[in-house]
Amino acid sequence: TQAKESMQFQTEVDQLLQLMIHSLYSNKEIFLRELISNGADACDKLRFNAISDDTLYEGDGDLRVEVEFDEEANTVTIRDNGIGMTREQVIDNIGTIAKSGTKEFLSKLSGDAAKDSNLIGQFGVGFYSAFIVADKVSLTTRAAGSTESVTWESNGKSGFTLEAADKASRGTEIVLHLQEDEKEFANGYRLRNVISTYSDHISLPVMMYKNEMPEYDEEGNVKESDEPKAKEWEVVNKAKALWTQPKSEISDEEYQEFYKHIAHDYTDALAWSHNNVEGKLEYKSLLYVPAKAQMDLWEPEQRNGIKLYVQRVFIMDDTKNLMPNYLRFVRGVIDSNDLPLNVSREILQSNQTVESMKKASVKKVLGLLDKMAKNEPEKYQSFWDEFGKVVKEGPSEDTSNKEQIAKLIRFSSTETDVEKQNVSLEDYVSRMQEGQEKIYYVTADSFTAAKNSPHLEVFRAKGIEVLLLSDRVDEWMINGLTEFDGKQLQSVAKGELDLGSLDSEEDKEEQKKTEEEAQPILKQLKDVLADKVEDVRVSHRLTSSPSCIVLGEQDMALYMQQLMKQAGH
Ligand code: ADP
Ligand code: MG
């Protein structure tokens, strides 16, 4: 056996621990949620690996997490018989937080306990929450299929030690030596209470010893029993996969708690859709719309998303095959009865079943959002403010649902002239003027620029509403969104503006006169600008600016041209 070996934390780890302990102090019981969820994850991994190699079970397939406490010693122990870790894995996963995100995590800590505990999940530093209540943590683990075990120990301050151990059973055992003033957690009621708050929905049993009721004699004195009774385990959480239960038996609190578990979020979800699909395809899905954007929403490789299960066995986190990009903020579970248990990432990419489940799930999410927009406009607005820029990728990405996505989009508009995007295309259409056939918009690279665009003058003068687009994604969105409700979307900066039908007879007379009068100067201008522009025309789109540049109908909008230039085209 190897001697005890000391290692240093990376510099950030000390810092991380101090900040985390400080900022989560008001919510310290989450340490139990994090450690139980790690145990449950470890069991999921074992079950998945055992699909192809069932010797990994070593004859013990009864996967569970056990929680024990010792009031006298002031300790809490969390134990699982999951996949365990090798010495190297302990160093990689627990020892160093060598994960690239740590620095970023630190920079994002805000001091707000609710926000920060959400970050912990997203960055995968949950294990360290143990130090919120413990001044020493001792982890002993044996990986499935291995004979060697190792003990990792740390006070959370001066690095950690590693030492060979002789753990017979597979899995991981974590002993928390509680700080003097955290004694409250070495208590059965307190622990049960925390477990049922945070871990009811974990599909794995979380076990504790039964409360031992003392036996009394006739006089009401505690019986002195000669033989100590063998302690008995009992399951203290509900231990049912939430999505397999009937909707009518699930409370909103349970839905929310499950959401927080799978999404590593601390805030409640905005809405969810729970479906039990039977027939040609059989699957269950539970899909959530979060309230707050995940940190990695704009990163190409984001964590989590939809969790794929096959017959209740966790298979993988999948973000690409089960939800399109423009709905990448959706969190949830899809549990299929049709896929093989040994389904691989490669199979997922071109699988008919997966494709159908995806299609139906997209419809569910769009329906959920549509309902929210209609029935809870304020909630919907908060959704839009948070995720609107993502949904705007929809019309180009998902042409089959274009019309439905279009209804969900919210715009800034000259109607309100405020930056808040709260005008729908339906609102716009309902306000269209007699004779107006198109939906007008202007794009610019800021809201102020859009709002002050000279192209708007004639529209403002005539009282015609124009949508003001200034998000980076808007040109891309407009590419996919060419019409709505049978009406064409028309840039006010492109081509001929046919506002003719909206002009009165007098206006038209007036315009004709102006055009005739302008002929000489037009000719002069054309000569001077000959090699710079295609044409010089009298415009009726301006009321106070003397001139403006107009793009041909086929030209890329200016902003798109700038984007392409920036991208090096
Ligand atoms: P996360 O669970 O988000 O990855 P944690 O800090 O909670 O982040 O855990 C870090 C890593 O340590 C896990 O990803 C896992 O590889 C490993 N780990 C933690 N607890 C256990 C356990 N009980 N059994 C096996 N591996 C574990
Ligand atoms: Mg974890």
TrEMBL record:
<dbReference type="InterPro" id="IPR037196">
    <property type="entry name" value="HSP90_C"/>
</dbReference>
<dbReference type="Pfam" id="PF13589">
    <property type="entry name" value="HATPase_c_3"/>
</dbReference>
<comment type="subunit">
    <text>Homodimer.</text>
</comment>
<feature type="binding site">
    <location>
        <position position="38"/>
    </location>
    <ligand>
        <name>ATP</name>
    </ligand>
</feature>
<dbReference type="InterPro" id="IPR020575">
    <property type="entry name" value="Hsp90_N"/>
</dbReference>
<keyword id="KW-0067">ATP-binding</keyword>
<keyword id="KW-0143">Chaperone</keyword>
<dbReference type="GO" id="GO:0005737">
    <property type="term" value="C:cytoplasm"/>
</dbReference>
<keyword id="KW-0547">Nucleotide-binding</keyword>
<feature type="binding site">
    <location>
        <position position="99"/>
    </location>
    <ligand>
        <name>ATP</name>
    </ligand>
</feature>
<keyword id="KW-0963">Cytoplasm</keyword>
<dbReference type="InterPro" id="IPR001404">
    <property type="entry name" value="Hsp90_fam"/>
</dbReference>
<feature type="binding site">
    <location>
        <begin position="100"/>
        <end position="101"/>
    </location>
    <ligand>
        <name>ATP</name>
    </ligand>
</feature>
<dbReference type="GO" id="GO:0051082">
    <property type="term" value="F:unfolded protein binding"/>
</dbReference>
<feature type="region of interest" description="A; substrate-binding">
    <location>
        <begin position="1"/>
        <end position="345"/>
    </location>
</feature>
<dbReference type="InterPro" id="IPR003594">
    <property type="entry name" value="HATPase_dom"/>
</dbReference>
<dbReference type="GO" id="GO:0140662">
    <property type="term" value="F:ATP-dependent protein folding chaperone"/>
</dbReference>
<feature type="binding site">
    <location>
        <position position="85"/>
    </location>
    <ligand>
        <name>ATP</name>
    </ligand>
</feature>
<feature type="binding site">
    <location>
        <position position="34"/>
    </location>
    <ligand>
        <name>ATP</name>
    </ligand>
</feature>
<feature type="binding site">
    <location>
        <position position="93"/>
    </location>
    <ligand>
        <name>ATP</name>
    </ligand>
</feature>
<feature type="binding site">
    <location>
        <begin position="122"/>
        <end position="127"/>
    </location>
    <ligand>
        <name>ATP</name>
    </ligand>
</feature>
<comment type="function">
    <text>Molecular chaperone. Has ATPase activity.</text>
</comment>
<dbReference type="GO" id="GO:0016887">
    <property type="term" value="F:ATP hydrolysis activity"/>
</dbReference>
<dbReference type="InterPro" id="IPR020568">
    <property type="entry name" value="Ribosomal_Su5_D2-typ_SF"/>
</dbReference>
<feature type="binding site">
    <location>
        <position position="172"/>
    </location>
    <ligand>
        <name>ATP</name>
    </ligand>
</feature>
<dbReference type="Pfam" id="PF00183">
    <property type="entry name" value="HSP90"/>
</dbReference>
<dbReference type="InterPro" id="IPR036890">
    <property type="entry name" value="HATPase_C_sf"/>
</dbReference>
<feature type="domain" description="Histidine kinase/HSP90-like ATPase">
    <location>
        <begin position="27"/>
        <end position="182"/>
    </location>
</feature>
<comment type="similarity">
    <text>Belongs to the heat shock protein 90 family.</text>
</comment>
<feature type="binding site">
    <location>
        <position position="345"/>
    </location>
    <ligand>
        <name>ATP</name>
    </ligand>
</feature>
<dbReference type="GO" id="GO:0005524">
    <property type="term" value="F:ATP binding"/>
</dbReference>
<protein>
    <recommendedName>
        <fullName>Chaperone protein HtpG</fullName>
    </recommendedName>
</protein>
<feature type="region of interest" description="Disordered">
    <location>
        <begin position="498"/>
        <end position="517"/>
    </location>
</feature>
<dbReference type="InterPro" id="IPR019805">
    <property type="entry name" value="Heat_shock_protein_90_CS"/>
</dbReference>
<keyword id="KW-0346">Stress response</keyword>
<feature type="binding site">
    <location>
        <position position="80"/>
    </location>
    <ligand>
        <name>ATP</name>
    </ligand>
</feature>
